[in-house]
Amino acid sequence: MAQDRKAAAGKRSIDRIDRRILQLLQSDARIPNTDLAKKVNLSSSPCLRRVSLLTDAGYVRMFKAVLDPIRLGFTVRAFLSIKRSRESDQREVSGKIAAVPEVIACHVVSGEYDLLAEVVARDMQHYAEITLETISKIDGVYDLRSSFSIRAIKTDGDLPIGDLES
CATH number of 2-56: 3.40.50.1980, 1.10.287.1080, 1.10.10.10, 3.40.50.300? Predict the structure, then answer.
């Protein structure tokens, strides 16, 4: 029965109320259901059901706290452009890179490089350890180049879902 509900939810299209719920959850995932329901003009039960259906359908991947890296001592933020050897398996290499705890994002990209990884470190010595002792030693990593963030302007942007059509 639960599997049927998830299958049906996955095929569900979203309406204006769903988009508003997603916008509100995106800006504050801790909003109490009663407050969320008021803001979208629903009673609590139907609102909670919609949130559950949106989550089951995969529109909401997870609820997560966004932490401040500077306050936690991560003063270096860098972007690694990574080339892999052609005989290496892209999924295997990217999986090993993504498994490094200091890698907070990793993308397969087009262009000169194969992967782009965002890395945080406590300081330059820690960054050197991550890149020279860990990432560069992953089988299949052929070359890597670093670009350092001088100052973060926007790191937790919301998806522009209010502009989506039903």
Answer: 1.10.10.10
